[in-house]
Structures are given as structure tokens and as C-alpha cells.
Amino acid sequence: MDPISKDDAKSMRGYMESKENRIKRMKMRAMRRGIKEMDIVMARYADDHLDTMSDAELDGFDALLHENDQDLLTWVTGQVAAPDQHAALIARIAAHAEASARG
Predict the structure, then answer these.
(1) What is the DSSP code (8-state) at residue 1?
(2) How far from chain centre, in Å, is Cα 45?
(3) What is the pLDDT along the chain (103 residues), one digit of tens a residue?
(4) Backbone CA torsion sign across 71, 93, 85, 39
């Protein structure tokens, strides 16, 4: 029997993982990023939005969680334009962070 590659294992996770468990996993990853600022921004967004996101939107957020924190920070702060595949989600996260900061 051939071993399962990491990519195959990632794609299989969606079939084996309930939506509830997937959201719990992503919330945990969102709040344990590495850069404290990104912990706060990503965790607040996850807490406020993941429960109502579609499977496709969750896929996008999950993909974003695999990105480097330094890149995420520059994208969210607008220092560097986010890649096309993440641009819309980054814009929503940045707007959410700005609104949260205002109170």
C-alpha cells in the first residue's frame, strides 16, 4: 500500500472532519499564529465569522492560515498588496480589525 502524501491527507481531512471540529481547529490556529498582533486580528475575525461561513469560505480561511505571519501582517496592514486568491478575505479581515480597534 502506498503512503498518503501530505497534500492528500489535507484534502481528505475535509471528508473526515465535521464542520464543528473544523471550525474549532481553525479558531485555535487563528489565535496561535506567532505574532501577537496577528493572533488578535485573526482570532477576533474567526470568533465573529467562522460559524456563519460557507464551506468554500472556510476553505479560503483555512488556506490563509497556512500563510506566513509576516506576510499576513503586511497584507492586513496594507503595506503590501495581498495575492489575488486572498485579497477579498484579507480586505474583510482588515476592515474587521479596523472596526474592532475603534470599539
Answers:
(1) -
(2) 9
(3) 556 565 555 555 556 889 999 999 999 999 998 899 999 999 999 999 999 999 999 999 999 999 999 999 999 999 999 999 999 999 999 999 999 888 7
(4) positive
Q: How far is CA 96 from CA 6, 7, 24, in A?
A: 32, 31, 20
Whole-structure pTM value: 0.81
Q: Which tens digit of pLDDT belongs to each residue from 28-48?
A: 999 998 899 999 999 999 999
Using only the alpha carbons of the chain, give its radius of gyration. 14
Domain ranges of the chain: 6-102
**Among 67, 103, 22, which residue's Cα sits nearest to residue 89?**
67
Dump the DSSP string for 6-59: HHHHHHHHHHHS-HHHHHHHHHHHHH--SSHHHHHHHHHHHHHHGGG--HHHHH
All three cell numbers of 38: 496577528
CATH 1.10.150.250 fits 6-102, yes or no: yes
